[in-house]
Design goal:
This protein is 76% helix and 0% strand. The chain is built from 34 helices and no strands. It has helices at 11-36, 42-55, 60-70, 80-95, 105-118, 124-140, 147-155, 159-180, 189-216, 221-236, 242-247, 250-257, 264-277, 281-308, 311-327, 329-335, 337-351, 356-360, 363-374, 382-406, 418-442, 444-464, 466-481, 489-493, 495-503, 513-523, 525-529, 535-544, 549-565, 567-570, 573-585, 593-607, 612-635, 640-652. The termini are far apart.
Amino acid sequence: FFFCLSYTLSPQSNAAAHRLDSLSMESVLEAFRVQQDPQARPEHIRDANLWLERFQSTTEAWTVADGLLSLPAEQVGNGSAHVFAAQSLRAKIQYDWAELPPQSHAALRDSLLAHAVRYSAGPQVVLTQLCLAVATLALHMEAWGQAVPELIGRFTSPPAEALAKLPCLLELLTVMPEEAENFKVAVMPRRRDEFRGLLRGAGPQVVALLGQVQEQCRGSSPLVQACLRCTASWLKAKSVPADCLMASPLVGLAFAALDDQTLFDEGVEMLVELVHFSKEADSHAQLVAGIMPPVLALGRRYDAAVQAGDEEVARALVRLFTETGEQCLHLLLTQQPEWLVSLAACLLRGAAHPDADVAEITFNFWYMLAEELNGGGRSLNDAQRVDARGLFADCFRQLLQALRSLVEFPSESDSWPADQADDFRRFRYAVGDVLTDACKVLSSTACIEEVYGALQQRLPAFGADPAGQWRSIEACVFCARQMITSNEPAFFTAPVVHQLLQLLPTLPAAGDLPNTAIRTVGTYANWLSRHAEMLPQMLTYVTSGLQQQRNAAAASQAMKHLCDACAEHLAEEATMAQLIQMYLGTLSFSLEPADRVDLVAALSFVVSQLPLPQVLPAMEAIARPLLQRLQAALEGGGGPGEVSVLLEHVGSV
């Protein structure tokens, strides 16, 4: 199989080339012996690695790699030379195709296919690299116009050898569509489109072959796995016709694979690609109708996995439910809403999974559904949207319950390291986005009523044991914090909001509850701007948080929000005097610089609304203590850090 360039040489030059190839092959083998020698010095191993990398870019690498693959395993040590050779050929075809004259393309193809047959039984890494090399060659080689049919014909005859060559054929067919989208291969867009068309033309033949493999090789898990992977690859490339797919046993094979532990992962991957393939509702509505009933039936399988504590199976099924919902949303919402309701019920169970990573898989589906029901999508007209919101209202109410459980701090959260606590807080804000989506469907007022009702139910237990029961109360308050709105008139007159804010200052201080409650008051600043009678109570409550270091940041930010939204109500001489006294009282607190800047900004919002004659005295009252501290720091030899912080405080006025 020494195909490359040899025909262009004279007999004398050809012999010299072969001697050079022999020397190069021996050098490659020697480099691998150095790598594998436990007594080799590190610098020698490093030099061997560098030499091999450089060798791959030489023209000799074509024939030397081909020759290495022909050597038996015992002659090349542990087989790493075979891996190197297969990878080298793939890289040469991908990056150095122009080095080869067209006359050598067919010889290279035949050599690669012969090697692929030889390694059909493994090692898998060598077989995969060889198949990738063949696929890349097919993309380059315009003269090979019937690559897929020729491969099927070559590897299925004679029939007596077909089974032995089947692993190689399935691997070749798997990587063909993948290489069509490998943009590291430098081919013209025209050629890439042409190659995609060739794959689509071969789609029915591939589906027929895979159907036969599935029927005849059911007892061989490796072959069935390879068949599922190959089908997924062609589905991803949209290279198979839907009618051929529905007529084949492949869809049934994928669902049956979910009952076999050895085939489960490949079955899920194929079904996910099948769902993506089915997204084009106009042409694939029949396919969607065929896959929805078995997908919905997997809800029982999910329940069993959760009960058995099998997180991997549960995660995979939630992913399948989510992909089905996202990809088929338009079709199901407009043509089969009852199926979408059933699918949403499956996703509700996924959203309630105790593992945050599993539950989070569903979040984008709820966003997409809420957008359609709220008017952000294009699937429904106004009348249909009203009916659909009624159809899914109960589903979103149940979602609120699941989300409330997700944001509740676990009992072991007190001992979490900082990074784990930060990760959970980031997850809670992701849950907050889904709560906002639920508000779009149910209304903010309805969602707050749901959460407030849950909070009331938990208050007796909390009152009896604040230190042990604060987490469930804090979760309710956190959810309520995410449910504000600015474009819902009923929200600003809802009694439940008034009741919630009245309740917050009365809750016993336990755990993170005060921090969340104070932040919630700041979040509702726009509501309070329309209910100014509650401002004194809320300002007193927020100010109390400045005295505890763990709540100081929340309190300063809440104060900033309140003074920004309610400045016109606070811009009275008596109120301003009280705010300044409050501010002066915080000067003895050990606040972070950013928190103190927030407080100065809060006061400045109110100062900006004062009558002009009162502005300068108020600014002086705020700035004087800061200037006194700055002067003392300068006279007392304060460091640059202290002076810089004080200057920032003064500048924020």
